[in-house]
Specification:
Mean pLDDT: 94
Number of strands: 6
Order of helices and strands: HEEEHEHEEHHHH
CATH class of the largest domain: Alpha Beta
Helix content: 40-55%
Distance between the termini: 31 Å
CATH topology of the largest domain: Trna Endonuclease, Chain: A, domain 1
CATH architecture of the largest domain: 3-Layer(aba) Sandwich
Low-confidence stretches: none
Strand content: 15-25%
Length: about 180
């Protein structure tokens, strides 16, 4: 089974799993850290939960570099694997990552539930937002800024002025309100 089939099964599973949580959105191919990485599927509601798919034709060669980017940016992370990868990913991924197995019969088995990520770096999480979304946070909290500031300065100033919990909530809200994902 390849990525598209696993992705469809995962979407159905996540829709059912999150149907009781208001304002849940499911996004494919969410850019991490301005495009340094991309998570296959993200569920955004009370957390930003990324799901990385490793099908039977995938290798685990990029997993180590993907983990660095995901660990610094996402609140929760799960890996979705073909059974042939389960043993190897269990050795490679952190204990707090979730593991979901999808077999050739389209059975889905959540082997381990994801826990909250204590290694998140708020500066990296803020890169999910576009410049206008960052400016909206400045306006909402009456924080002074200059229109000439680039995105990285806006991120730095926000992280100095607001706590991580507030900023994560603002990131989730902005992503849920976003209309045009591929600008």
């Amino acid at each position: 089974m390849r990525d598209p089939e696993i992705r469809n099964i995962l979407h159905s599973y996540l829709s059912v799993k999150n149907n009781h949580i208001e304002e849940t959105i499911i996004v494919d191919e969410l850019n991490i850290k301005n495009g340094l990485a991309r998570i296959d599927v993200a569920v955004i509601n009370g957390a930003i939960h990324g799901y990385e798919i490793k099908s039977e034709v995938d290798t685990l060669n990029r997993l180590e570099s993907q983990m660095l980017h995901y660990n610094s940016s996402l609140e929760k992370i799960s890996i979705v694997v073909n059974p042939k990868h389960t043993k190897n990913v269990t050795k490679e991924i952190p204990y707090w990552w979730g593991i979901i197995e999808v077999d050739e019969y389209e059975n889905i088995n959540e082997i381990r539930e994801a826990e909250y990520n204590n290694y998140l770096i708020i500066l990296d999480a803020l890169t999910f937002l576009w410049k206008n979304e960052l400016v909206n946070i400045f306006t909402k909290f009456n924080i002074d800024y200059k229109k000439s500031w680039n995105k990285s300065i806006l991120i730095e100033v926000l992280s100095e002025n607001l706590g991580q919990k507030i900023l994560l909530n603002e990131i989730r809200q902005a992503l849920k309100l976003r209309k045009n994902w591929r600008n």
